[in-house]
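Schema walkthrough. Field components (list of strings):
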Amino acid sequence: MHDHRATLERMRSLTPDEETLSRLTRLFRVFGDPTRMRILYALSRGEMCVCAIGEYLGMEQSAVSHQMKVLKDTYLVKSRREGKTVYYALADDHVQSIVCQGYEHVCEDKE
Amino acid sequence: MHDHRATLERMRSLTPDEETLSRLTRLFRVFGDPTRMRILYALSRGEMCVCAIGEYLGMEQSAVSHQMKVLKDTYLVKSRREGKTVYYALADDHVQSIVCQGYEHVCEDKE
DNA sequence: CGTTCATATGAATGACTGTTCATATTATAG
DNA sequence: CTATAATATGAACAGTCATTCATATGAACG
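Field assembly_structure (string):
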């Protein structure tokens, strides 16, 4: 095995702590599911209730609820109750800018 | 079931095509693994060979190679051969800006 | 050529996770 | 209080994927 002490020395300080690393990768995994991405795209136009999301994406109410929980736990969406109905909306602009960054990347690679 | 034709109407046009959606979520899934994220962090300081990456992160050579393939297939890293050694480096600044966006998000949520 | 080092690849296994089904909340209306 | 609509939750199943082990490729050197 060849030597690379110098290379190793360079970045020992950089790596984020376990807690942050875990949160960070968890966040990206949440973005990594087509269904959730569709939901986020849908919400980028404005708030929607569980019912409408399910109808729009052709998925069961239960599946939607499960995914909304995931999205909420990672602070990507927020909710608001109005009677029996719960409306979900994107939590903030961060969500969109992350998706856009990814979007640009995959578009570049199409060449 | 209550009515939401108006809501639905709003965003039918938005959703990206299947191909793009698939590429996009695939990309985020790649960012969603702690090992790969550690590799990307390591490379953010400069190129490294497979050997050094494995040593640094305490993982087997085979595992590193497998992951480098994933990273390369999604254009997150590029490689350069020098004799028997293969050096990997981040493909472009995009990678770092995506990670940073995510980083900011998880940091905000710590409050 | 044969050997050795660095890397790549294929198959198998175990862990994780999205969906479904059944059931539980929560809220409104009568 | 009962019925019903909207949403949430828990358990089970199925598909995905990261790691490991064994083996293959590729390059330098004698």
